[in-house]
Task: structure prediction
Amino acid sequence: MSIQQNILSGIQQAFRQIFQLEVELDKLNLAPTRKEFEGTYTFVVFTFLKQTKLSPEMTASKIGDFLKENCRDVSDYNVVKGFLNLVLNENSWIDIFTTLYRKETIGQLPSNGQKVMVEYSSPNTNKPLHLGHLRNNFLGYSVAEILKANGYEVIKSNLVNDRGIHICKSMVAYLHFGNGETPESAGLKGDHLAGKYYVLFDKTYKTQIKELQAKGQTEEEAKKNAPILIEAQDMLRKWEANDPQTVALWKQMNQWVYAGFEVTYQTMGVDFDQFYYESDTYLLGKDIVEEGLKKGVFFKKENGSVWVDLTEEGLDEKLVLRADGTSVYITQDMGTADLKYRDFQIDKSVYVVGNEQDYHFEVLFKIMRKLGRSYGPGLYHLSYGMVDLPTGKMKSREGTVVDADDLMQEMIDTAESHTKELGKIEGFNEKQAQELYRILGLGALKYFLLKVDPKKRMLFNPKESIEFQGNTGPFIQYSHARIASILRKADQLEVNYQNPDFSSMGQLAESETSLILILNDFEKKIAQAGTEYSPAIIAQYLFDLAKEYNRFYADVPIFSENDASILAFRVALSAQTAKTIKKGMRLLGIAVPDRM
RNA sequence: GGUCCUGUAGCUCAACUGGAUAGAGCAACUGCCUUCUAAGCAGUAGGUUUCAGGUUCGAGUCCUGACAGGAUCACCA
Result:
């Protein structure tokens, strides 16, 4: 970090002294030098040619000369066209590494005094979680961790969608076909039990539609008139009227579902600081409608419905309150946004929600900004693409989903058979072995879902998607286990790598300097992942790091090295890599084993 | 139809925000376990970055227009 800054300010001085030019530091940028050229950092001079009034080569050479003379970190340079390649001083490598190595905490930027809420998961309580939810939960949890590492105080929240017509559908089907079944009697997790009745509802609904059509109704009529749907609508009205029987059933079924979710969340390794329930929030927001009318942000149509005009922002008019005075979706979302602020005085608010709601959130955020909310500028929709299957889209009510519980278990089983195949379980007792399979299976799954840019839709092929080799979670976990093994041996041999003296170190191998360079990038990547809300950046970084370490591992011997200080240095380099991998993987919500 | 997102090797993804000869993994092929864990390493092969224009020293990246896939445009949630 400081070395780059040092070089940059050297370049700034070069401009001042050679060309009498004042260039701001943030206009200057160093890029890593491409492998085929000598050097570590490259400065591109093309942008400045108009002001230097010299050829690219001349400009670069002059700056290079100046740096070689005046900057202690630069020992040499070469120029290719307008590219100034800088070679770092041997001692600088050790300096960079020592600075990193001495830091107490790794991958934690100082507090910025800001509070951010990350809302994710947001399940419906009528069915179990599926593959799409896994992407949501892993993303949300990871982004929360990344924001913590960026110095935010983070509140993880979960807005549970526990009311509405879809919940009533499961309830109606249960009344019809349940016969008093419970999770215990059915041997099913509560969420799976509710999901079973949701599918049953849909089946019955479809049959009834066909029957009505056979009696001469159009498809559209039949869809409206199917008795079971009317029942569900009735039930929603009863629920809203607080009918004791309905509420009791609703509570009962929700309780089952929450117990089921709890297990799933535990396996996923995600958690929440704050739960919100739509049954509590669905009436919120009407006061904001009043406020908006007063402020002239909203307007009323003749029939009494309330609207916001966003045509100037390139959108259209959106309804915020129905003519009969009842809420729509966005009404309660406005209310919930304020509620979150009242509860926590947040500066920023991140919503992890699928990209089918892009438009909704654009509207919501524009409204809250127009209303002048202090947290308005800090609203962010972390929009992610759907997870598709080779067979097409997943649909809960048709039962064509990859269930979250099943998938995670399958991953753990695969990890187990893989590990046994490789014969790597000696020395593990049964409990340790099970823990390892869990770490590996979930690591593979989480890494797979997080390594892709969130906004891209992705294909999940159950047969092929999850690998244990190459750019995968287990590859990175394996690299960590390798290092842990080295550290065990170093401890055994009493190598002093905790407080080593590197002052007599000579020239480093190329694989060593490359590794230092990557290790040095960690905080930069954390910052980038934070501003872009993208775990994929961390995932990519960790893969590069692990790959580089494995290259070093194959390239350079450690314990057969005679020079004690070189040996200690290589162990220290390994230790630093392990720490970085562990912290980085934690940002992804992935654990790393010490042996595998 | 309007708006938004996406399009890079056979497949899954990168590309430091406009920089040099576009990089990894999987799959295929060739080597490397008597040495710190081979879930690894080294190598071969694979590309008109969907297409056509434009901007400039320089474009996968920015602009315009096509084409393809997806989402969305309810007094649904």
